[in-house]
Amino acid sequence: MTAPASLGHRAEGGPPTHRQAMDPAPPRLTVRAGHAAVDGAPAEFATLFRHGTLEVEFYRPEGVDRQTPHTRDELYVVASGTGVFVNGETRRPFEPGEVLFVPAGAEHRFEDFSDDFATWVFFYGPEGGESP
After folding, report:
1. Whole-angstrom Cα distance, residue 89 to residue 96?
2. Rounded-to-10 torsion of CA 27, 31, 35, 36
3. HEC readout, 39-101
4. CATH of 30-124, one of 2.60.120.10, 2.40.50.140, 3.30.300.210, 1.50.10.10
């Protein structure tokens, strides 16, 4: 038996419904899912979602943040932990829930962070960053 098209399924031989034409639902992007992805990754980060120019990662460095500048703009949303965020010449404390912006190519890193530090990373836009 075929599900009616109104439920987002295509009847045999019928055209795709609006729901089918859209991208599939993204995975749940929870802190628990982020930790699980990093636990299974060979690095201190894992990519959990991509769509267009948007890339969502979960980053959990251990002891030292070894990042180098990135080629696209990025936002961090701190999931847990505290420490100091260095963005160019600026140093500022951070806490859970804080949103931090880094333009493409900028030197940045997390320092003096607690053992429970983890953050979401959202890369977006073109290589070289967006124009201000």
Report:
1. 22
2. -40
3. HCCCCCEEEEEEECCEEEEEECCCCCCCCCCCCCEEEEEEEECCEEEEECCEEEEECCCCEEE
4. 2.60.120.10
Q: Compute how many other C-beta atoms are within 10 angstroms of the C-beta atom of residue 87.
A: 16
- How far is residue 5's CA from residue 104's CA, in Å, rounded to a whole number? 44
Question: What's the one-letter identity of residue 21?
Answer: A
- CB-CB contact of 125 with 73 (8 Å): yes
Give the domain ranges of the chain: 30-124
User: Residue with structure tokens 């983890």?
Assistant: 118
Q: Is 20 helix (H, G, I), strand (E, B) or coil?
A: helix
- Which residues on neighbouring strands pair with residue 10, listed in sequence order? none
Give per-residue pLDDT as tens, 60-109.
Answer: 999 999 999 999 999 999 999 999 999 999 999 999 999 999 999 999 99
Which amino acid is it at 17? T
